[in-house]
Amino acid sequence: MARDIKQELEELLHAVIDRGGSDVHISVGRKPTLRIDGVLVRVEEKDVIGENDAERFVMEILTEDQRVRFLENKELDFSYNFNDIARFRVNVFMQRGRFAAAMRLIPTAIRTLDELGHPPILHTIAKMSQGFFLVVGPSGQGKSTTLAAMIDEVNHQRPCHIITIEDPIEYLFNNDKAIVDQREVGQDTKSFNNALRSVLRQDPDVIMVGEMRDPETISAAITAAETGHLVFSTLHTNNAAQTIDRIIDSFPPAQQNQIRAQLSGTLLGVLSRRLIPRAGGGRSAAFELLIANPAIKNLIRENKTHQIDLVIETSAEEGMISLNRSLALLVKKGEISYEEAAVHSMNPSELRILVSR
What we know:
alpha/beta; Rossmann fold; globular
């Protein structure tokens, strides 16, 4: 008897919502799988997914236009509205000639910076009239959630024009004091770079770029920050120093000095996030926060990014925090175990010292 794919899909999406999960995975040769508190959990009551099942799952969530684009490109990013209950960021793709899908739950409510436990200085960043602020970290660590919180704070605080460029649109903003226009790559614009080239003619005050994927997008974002706009974006990097190196190294050597000068002049800060499993279930956020003070700007200009970690470590009074200090604080509060902290630390020996103090 053929599976009722529509009903099974609805059951899986309800399950990830009800169990506080973040993702649903559809892949041939294994049972449907949820990610809960960062861990993959098979849905044991479901059957193993066959090749035909996987294709039917994928085709069930695609519109006719999306099917054409997917079959042409072999992968597709889009957002999926589940019966007005929840939204999902979806990537459908081919693997070994078979259909597969990864669906990320997007919470309907946008949480505030305080609810997310972010450093208070982010409220100050959200009040800035111009500059460049980055949220970085590996995939699935809540970068989009942080950006949404910052954009929504601006939305509730001041009359301005906010333009977001996303692939796909994730959180939906309701206009408050601000006008928020959300543009989706593929639907509303051809690419991040195309959208950024025209954005300055749309009279924005605040610009959010979902992800900086190439030098053209990075350059356009920095230029927008230089010309009197507040720009937010993300990168898949591990920490502040690596982020700055990645930005500069993405350009040819002849352009790198110019980019260093532009970045040192526009950068407001870099927030790196990690979601650490809690002892009693759920996850706690650990942070590294760089604030671009004169010392940091000087290090960027002079290509001494290897010294950035030391400045972060010694600038707590300016609101900066190192990842190890954040991890150590969570251990001391009893929110996470020392073993989990050590797994996520980039300097476990220093973490041991901080925890023992």
